[in-house]
Amino acid sequence: LAQPRNTDSFDYANYHTLSEIYSFQDMLVAENPNLVSKIVIGQSYEGRPLNLLKFSTGGSSRPAIWIDTGIHSREWVTQASGLWFAKKIVTDYGNDSALTTILNNMDIFLEIATNPDGYYFTHTSDRMWRKTRKPNPGYSCYGVDPNRNWDAGFGLPGASSYPCSETYHGPSAFSESEVKSIVDFVKSHGNIKAFISIHSYSQMLMYPYGYTTTPVKDQAELHALAEKAITDLASLYGTRYRYGSIINVIYQASGSTVDWTYEQGIKYSYTFELRDTGTYGFLLPAKQIIPTAEETWLALMALMDHTYKNPY
Amino acid sequence: KETFEGHQVLRIVPKNELQLSLVKNLEEMMEFELDVWMGVTGVSHPVDIRVPPHTLESFKSYLDSLDLEYSTMIEDVQAILDMEREQMESAAR
Q1: What is the pLDDT of residues B21-62, one digit of tens each?
Q2: Nearest to A211 by CA among A131, A162, A157, A265
Q3: d(Cα A207, Cα A250) in Å, to the nearest integer?
Q4: Which residues does A contribute to its contact with B (CB < 8 Å)?
Q5: Rounded to whole angstroms, how far apart are CA atoms A101 and A113?
Q6: A50 with A116: CB under 8 angstroms?
Q7: Sign of torsion, CA A238 A242 A244 A245?
């Protein structure tokens, strides 16, 4: 099988295995040593590295933007979009004035394979796998929903206590190394100003909270920014998104990522659900990857630009 | 390797609050071995559920008994997975 020799020849319009994602990350770092570096923030349950790409033009402890893709393993268009975002950042730096300004003042962290064990499992054993791959003692079923495993309303309604459920919250908050590694990184960094966690596929952009109907104190600003982001997104292909707090846009969801990040003081905490054609669900054809990534990028830029222009 | 021959993905669009609560209850039902792809969010918003072949007929009957209309979003999950795999291998070549 032909292997891409560089990230220019990488096929962004197709889905890729975990090893191809790892290779892509290494290529991108090698090609852009002054802009991109790789940080291993931990290991998955099965011992795979949790790689973070750091896009930085220098400085120390700069304010930063976090983006993660694919914490739910079967949502392949999410990881595929993450690959496209990574390449987009390096190609636009120096060419796009807004991104260049952001990167001259802030760092961007991108975790493309947030749940590598699950992603590997979707390629090798079960394409429909969603959770982590840690065994549940006393049960034959595996895994925890890593988007219910955070210490924000952990265990409240909106997650399951049954280990075989797709929304099992796990035995305790941060029980999953894939989650704990992010928590440790975010806490040790201490200067992350925006946290964007990307999923697919129901065309939503949401902000906290998911576990309570209490509005966040920044509700008005987050709502207006979400509206701006989805308006920019729709300008490309007309894809319509819903937006609002998690509990208002979907039903109650407890222990979710951005509820925790918001409670850590990261004001611009958002979670995406990428496009839905109404035909394929998680099995979105590969020809949809680039349009999905392109339109999502416009929304990401709106979120990142606002974060840069509104320091706190 | 797990395969999904005959699995279908059904799309249900709740028309009112009553239907919404009925569909919400489906998410908790274990006997049909459902895999909720897109959960309940509100009236007029679709809910997508993967159903294995051995419970498909009984699940459809159950939906009929509740007067819940549905459409088949994916006829055969494995057929799409096969296409996806072929496309990946072809692209890699």
Answers
A1: 999 999 888 899 999 999 999 999 999 999 999 999 999 999
A2: A157
A3: 11
A4: 1-2, 11, 13-16, 124-128, 166, 201-202, 242, 249-251, 276, 278-283, 285-286
A5: 27
A6: yes
A7: negative
Structure tokens given for B48: 């997508």
Please write the tens of the pLDDT for every residue from A199-209.
Answer: 999 999 999 99
- Whose tokens are 């997975």? That residue is B81
A276 neighbourhood in chain B, CB within 8 Å: 38
Residue A255's nearest CA partner among A158, A111, A130, A144 is A158
For A287, which residue in chain B has the nearest alpha carbon? B87
Q: Which stretches of chain B sit within 8 Å of chain A by CB?
A: 1-2, 4, 9, 11, 24, 35-41, 46, 48, 50, 73-74, 77, 80-81, 84, 87-88, 91-93
What ipTM score was computed for the predicted complex, to two decimals? Answer: 0.95
What is the Cα–Cα distance from B70 to B64, expressed in whole angstroms? 9
Instruction: Pick B35's closest partner by Cβ from A166, A250, A285.
Output: A166
